[in-house]
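Kindly inspect what follows.
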Amino acid sequence: MTTAAAGSPRTYHVRTYGCQMNVHDSERISGLLEQAGYVRAPQADDTPDVVVFNTCAVRENADNRLYGNLGHLRPVKDKHPGMQIAVGGCLAQKDRGEIVRKAPWVDVVFGTHNIGSLPVLLERARHNAAAEVEILESLDVFPSTLPTRRESTYAGWVSISVGCNNTCTFCIVPSLRGKEKDRRPGDILSEVRALVDEGVLEVTLLGQNVNSYGVEFGDRYAFGKLLRACGDIDGLERVRFTSPHPKDFTDDVIAAMAETPNVCHSLHMPLQSGSDDVLRAMRRSYRSERYLGIIEKVRAAMPDAAITTDIIVGFPGETEADFQRTLDVVREARFSSAFTFQYSKRPGTPAATMDGQLPKQVVQERYERLIATVEEITWAENKRLVGETVEVLVAVGEGRKDERTGRMSGRARDGRLVHFATADIAAGQIRPGDIVNTTITYAAPHHLNADGAPVAHRRTRAGDAAEAGRSPRTPGVLLGLPTLGAPPVAPAPTAGCASH
């Protein structure tokens, strides 16, 4: 059944593409729809009343992916006239009315600045039997004031800012997300406390550039102070953040990371290129020496720190010497992981019209060499942990082979993925959200295995919530009552527009 029966709530699906920002925005979309009386459809239901696409515009194939998915839905909607399709996110902000022109069966198009309008736009489209397109040029309300249906019982995203004041030549995000808008520290900490009150153990502070947090209220040390304030919240066991920008990285943030016990010793800091010439063309405002200097300071303060990054291969004008410099920096930085991308031309960005656009085969060949170099280093770095005992926050959906191998999975404090065996006596007792200590027995480039019985297992309130099928809901920054219903597997976070 597609259209809701009389008196029955309408059902919805949200399909998310892109970075952590989009994942968190989708939590808000779900919260808004459920506040308006909608009910999430089971994953197996391919004919919900409303399908929302929350889109990304960073990669070159984003457009093709969206329109391909919309094309697949057209015959489904033709057979179920009550179905509505909404498109939001960065691609909607960019393409606007073009989406309805290319796919006239779409009912609603909304942008990055007016997520809160979605329920009204859906009702208006139903009433008028016509598409509704609403794209605002600036924020209507700060997104974190909207109700949120959290996808995890144990970990939560918390936005500290939206938008970006940088002008990287390859990036379309500032034109789609707007100038940086900062939340007040008290509002952020209230949201963190609300999550912890519901059992959440880990929060990730989100911003396009967390290091510039405080620019709106004139405090360049605001981010370090925020990290330290998170250390005073009882029950908050892990604090992460993404993404910092090397040009704004200050020593007080390193000190806050090292001196605040619940701040994890993990740092995701985009490099993009190791060549100063390419960084200059990208308008990145730092050079490789500055980047490596930050890493040196981080490791001096936290020798166990795991550092991850983003790298773009094949930027216009990149020479073989430029690429070799990137490989040199990768070898010197010794990343524990790297998100690697082939440069893709995005209309509307300065880089799209630059001279020196590289042939696909050149970019592909360099990309393969970069992958090989990164994996050689990440494997060597992971092997150093064999024999070490690590603390793992048990997760849902991290290990695709877990059921077949009899393992469970989670993240160590440094962010590494760990697949661990469970002793027979513990089988069924370890829940997502629980904490286990386990000894690493094997290392691969992208994960660690622990094949012995856990050294310790601690049951947590987050595990209790997972076992009961509760997922946290927060109406804005206030504390919401948990509701019943098994939480779905959250989409794996990917680097992208949040990683600048």
